[in-house]
Specification:
Elements: H1 3-6, H2 24-42, H3 50-62, E1 65-66, H4 67-74, H5 78-90, E2 94-98, E3 106-110, H6 112-132, H7 138-160
GO biological process, one term: response to stress
Protein name: Winged helix-turn-helix transcriptional regulator
GO molecular function: DNA-binding transcription factor activity
């Protein structure tokens, strides 16, 4: 590790200075930017965004599901999910219908074209994940995924007051 990652800048008063470049939020944002850039470079459907792919995968995994279920599964806010669903619906990748038991509830499901697209994109998604981990050994990959999951789980617990 280089010196700039181990030394903490010190203010004239001797207190450690805040180095934004070493803060978890900044590092997560940079890692996400790297991953998103890889997604855009590798995924062959140039109209498909990472958020759209995640929504398609969530709907594939749960079958016909409500908007709130998609929000919960993807951790994408409701307004964004609505826009994603509208765009995917206009591409005829998703179908939307009212629940027979509760007409107020809208159910979202994959169309055959949506299922075909998801299935054809999955190998590219695996490649994107591997390229995101470029330079990591297997233990580092496992550790990072474990720690990110732990962070996400503690976030859910913190938000629910537990």
């Amino acid at each position: 590790m280089s010196d700039n990652h181990t030394r903490k800048p010190v203010s004239p008063s001797g207190e450690p200075q805040y180095d934004f470049s070493q803060q978890v939020g900044h590092l997560l944002r940079r890692a996400y930017q790297r991953h998103t850039a890889l997604f855009q470079q590798i995924i062959p459907d140039t109209q498909l965004t990472a958020a759209q792919f995640v929504v398609l995968c969530a709907v594939r995994d749960c079958g016909a599901c409500s908007l709130s279920e998609i929000v919960k599964r993807t951790a994408i806010d409701q307004a964004t999910v609505r826009g994603v669903i509208d765009r995917l619906k206009s591409r005829k990748l998703l179908g939307v219908r009212h629940d027979d038991a509760d007409r107020r509830k809208v159910l979202v499901s994959l169309t055959p074209a949506g299922l075909e697209l998801v299935d054809s994109m999955v190998p590219f998604a695996f490649d994107i994940t591997e390229k995101t981990f470029a330079g990591f050994n297997p233990a580092e990959k496992l550790a990072l995924v474990y720690l990110l999951n732990k962070m996400c789980e503690s976030d859910v617990a913190d938000l629910s007051g537990n």
